[in-house]
Amino acid sequence: MASMRGGMMMIGAALLLCLSGGALAEDPYLFFEWNVTYGTIAPLGIPQQGILINGQFPGPKINCTSNNNIVVNVFNHLDEPFLLTWSGIQHRKNSWQDGTLGTMCPIMPGTNFTYQFQVKDQIGSFFYFPTTALHRAAGGMGMLQVHSRNLIPVPFDTPVDEFALLIGDWYNKGHKTLRKILDSGHTIRRPDGIQINGNSGKVGDSTAQPLFTMEPGKTYRYRVCNVGLRTSVNFRLQGHTLKLVEMEGSHTVQNVYDSLDIHVGQCMSVLVTADQAPKDYYLVVSSRFFKKVMSSVAVIHYTNGKGPASPELPPPPPENSAGIAWSINQFRSFRWNLTASAARPNPQGSYHYGNINITRTIKLVNSHYLVDGKLRFGINGVSHVDGETPVKLAEHFGVSNKVFSYDLVKDEPPQAQGDKVVLAPSVVNATFRNFVEIIFENQEKTIQTWSLDGYSFFAVGIEPGSWSPEKRKNYNVLDAVSRHTIQVYPNSWAAVLTTLDNAGMWNLRSEMRERAYLGQQLYFSVVSPARSLRDEYNMPTTQQLCGIVQGLPMPPPYTI
Ligand SMILES: *[C@@H]1O[C@H](CO)[C@@H](O)[C@H](O)[C@H]1NC(C)=O
Ligand SMILES: *[C@@H]1O[C@H](CO)[C@@H](O)[C@H](O)[C@H]1NC(C)=O
Ligand SMILES: *[C@@H]1O[C@H](CO)[C@@H](O)[C@H](O)[C@H]1NC(C)=O
Ligand SMILES: *[C@@H]1O[C@H](CO)[C@@H](O)[C@H](O)[C@H]1NC(C)=O
Ligand SMILES: *[C@@H]1O[C@H](CO)[C@@H](O)[C@H](O)[C@H]1NC(C)=O
Ligand SMILES: *[C@@H]1O[C@H](CO)[C@@H](O)[C@H](O)[C@H]1NC(C)=O
Fold it and tell me: Which residue ranges run through the membrane (predicted)?
């Protein structure tokens, strides 16, 4: 097969599959071949070793449609094991391909592995990134966008074009140096600056190339993800407003904003209309909740543009406690559009999550610890450690007792936690199809972001202070956005609701990469008692085996 630009091959015509009732068109396949290599990048102007995919940083965009089958053959040309995750892609019945170290063996240097998964019943903006060894500090990430199928109504006119914007903080040290700092027990501290699609522009730089070009009068979709390691950012476009239309797979009520906060790991889509005088404009991305604001700009050009962007930048939102109040208010303005469809024809609002009884409440408190003088992070007194054997494979082969103990993390944080922490693989036994409430309580002084694989959840509430059951009456039980990440402000809590109806082993992690690397994550083991193919796919025959499951007899396959 000939390789097309970007290493993508596509079978245009759908394969036909004959079933007893007649012929069904199988969902189309998109094939990608990715070479992962080191290469020199300079997001903040200082050359350093980066991680490229097919020579690109950010990596190639995956542009697909709901229910497409995605096949990515990843060749690891690095000198370290490597693994990619597809953040926000739910992998229905298929945690085998989730790309976290609890579900898969890493791709060893000099070898390749082919991911295969379906973007089943999803639309929206997501990104992929490496889960191994702080590799995200060096690149390896890219946009993954899922379009609605034809005939499923989209609640806005088709934009003339779509722009992918991967923004976030950046460290000049490189991932190996940063990892040494963490391994020696220290924090990587504050980042060196802000990058915008691999660059960082300064106001008044007359040599800057435009990042995007818009035709006057036309409307564009900007898909924006914060791919940084720890910093919440705010983005805004001089002279233009941002109409929010989508957030991590949900169509939102289309409010118009001057600027938007986006926290680490989050994605959203805004529509921008080129309705201003034809000249250049600065897109501004600035850090949030740091004493000293860091920012970068990129030039947005009009096709008929004459003249440079004005040096007067739109102001950032307030900082300190006023800034947090501003940001919480903005969070509360994000609403699910109940009448709009997402990936299926029925309106999003036909799922009345507010009427479902909560079957389990799990309250998770993040903390940091010193263990033998070294920094660790944890959840409810447990700091996760990835072992040689992915916990999913240990469970599947029936040897979990040799690899981990279930439920070290309890549904309530321990009283008077102090500095006590357990270092071990952290797996919570969850009951298939339970409707759970997860409370994230942040008693630390820095903002947190959490991300859950395998599901989206309803982000029903964020408030300052401590959570208690009475707070439930403040939840948004009508039109909270269904998404897969949530920020938690300092000394605040956030509550999310979800149905654990996707069997598999699913990572819940801090999106702050140093925290996840030093243990602030866990896995939900969601086992279908039926052991049925209706609930979970069989382990792919191509699955790599490692650790103690190598050479063990294959467990019996699931049946219908
Ligand atoms: C990947 O690298 C190999 C050589 O190692 C080359 O043959 C192939 O064309 C590359 N593929 C892409 C998509 O760049
Ligand atoms: C992306 O996918 C959509 C829908 O499948 C298609 O209309 C569009 O042309 C694609 N864009 C690119 C750049 O491939
Ligand atoms: C590695 O790549 C080769 C060549 O494309 C392919 O035939 C093979 O299936 C791949 N191996 C894995 C484990 O994906
Ligand atoms: C919600 O979606 C509908 C499409 O069903 C659209 O007509 C409407 O404008 C959207 N409402 C808001 C407030 O964004
Ligand atoms: C929820 O719980 C209430 C009280 O325990 C009960 O009356 C109601 O039937 C339950 N609703 C559902 C949908 O199970
Ligand atoms: C997990 O919980 C279920 C009940 O929800 C129970 O049947 C099962 O034995 C538990 N599994 C483990 C390994 O504790």
Answer: none
**196 and 296 share one domain:** yes
Of all protein residues, the one whose alpha carbon is nearest to atom 5 of ligand 4 is: 340
For residues 537 and 118, what is the distance between their CA atoms, to the nearest angstrom? Answer: 12
Q: In this structure, are 398 and 538 located in the same domain?
A: yes
Instruction: Output the residue whose Cα is nearest ligand 1's atom 4.
Output: 35
What is the band of 417 on the pLDDT scale with cuts at 50, 70, 90?
low
Q: pLDDT tens digits, residue range 262-321? A: 999 999 999 999 999 999 999 999 999 998 999 999 999 999 999 999 999 999 999 999
Tell me which ligand sits closest to the C-alpha of residue 150: 2
R_g of the chain, CA atoms, integer Å: 23
Q: Is the peptide bond before 58 cis (omega within 30 degrees of 0)?
A: yes
Over range 129-135, report the average pLDDT.
Answer: 97
Q: Which ligand is nearest to the CA of 2?
A: 1
**pLDDT > 70: percent of the chain:** 95
pLDDT for 12 equals: 38
The residue segments making up the domain with residue 126 are 2-147
**Residue 176 domain-assigned (yes or no):** yes
Q: What is the pLDDT of residue 11?
A: 45
The mean pLDDT value for 246-269 works out to 98
Q: For ligand 3, what atom is nearest to the CA of residue 542?
A: 13
Residue 216 lies in a domain: yes
Residue 160: CB atoms within 10 A of its CB come to 13
Do the domain assignments include residue 327?
A: no
In a domain, 427, yes or no: yes
| Whether residues 136 and 166 fall in one domain | no
Compute CA 133 distance to the chain's CA centroid, rounded to the nearest angstrom.
Answer: 17
Q: In CATH, what number is assigned to the domain containing residue 188?
A: 2.60.40.420
- Which residue shows structure tokens 């759908």? 14
Contacts of 26 (CB under 8 A, 6+ apart): 14, 15, 16, 17
**How far is it, in rounded angstroms, from Cα 287 to Cα 292?**
8
Q: What three-state secondary structure class fits 244?
A: strand
What is the amino acid identity at position 74?
V
CA angle 85, 89, 90 (to 5 degrees): 110
* Residues 299 and 208 sit within 8 Å (Cβ to Cβ): yes
Q: Which of 431, 523, 526, 531 has most ligand 6 atoms within 8 Å of its beta carbon, as the pocket-test mutant?
A: 431
Q: Which ligand gives the minimal distance to the CA of 355?
A: 5
Q: Nearest Cα to 450, choosing from 465, 438, 461?
A: 438
Q: State how far Cα 120 lies from the chain centre.
A: 17
> E-assigned strands of 274-393?
281-287, 295-302, 360-371, 374-379, 382-384
Cα gap 302→278, rounded to integer Å? 6
Who contacts 201 (Cβ-Cβ below 8 Å, separation ≥6)? 208, 282, 296, 297, 298, 299
